[in-house]
Design brief:
40% helix
């Protein structure tokens, strides 16, 4: 599923867009994840008060049918034989100095 619109260029904006496109509320998303995240936590992510840990990303992507790259706001750049992924998002529990990661090709 490709998101129809982007509310903002932030994690919370993309989460809102994905949830809107999936027609799921925070309470329904919490239930769909087997309670892995409380509805309150999802509300806080949507409001931009907190960010999920990296372990939450695959679960959210599966439930919302979006890619992790899209949800995290990643952009791929290729230079020669190397591909880099750039992101302007900080995910809870990660080092902000590692916002540039290399993907070997």
């Amino acid at each position: 599923m490709v998101p129809r619109m982007e509310t903002e260029d932030t994690f919370s904006g993309r989460l809102i867009t994905a949830m809107t496109n999936s027609r799921v509320s925070p309470i329904e998303l919490s239930a769909a994840t087997g309670g892995a995240f409380s509805a309150r936590t999802i509300f806080r992510w949507r409001a931009g008060h907190t960010a999920p840990g990296i372990e939450a990303i695959p679960i959210l992507c599966e439930q919302l049918e979006v890619s992790a790259d899209w949800l995290l706001g990643c952009i791929q750049c290729t230079h020669g034989t190397q591909t880099f992924v750039l992101t302007n998002q900080v995910v809870a529990g990660t080092n902000p100095d590692t916002s540039l990661t290399e993907r070997g090709t």
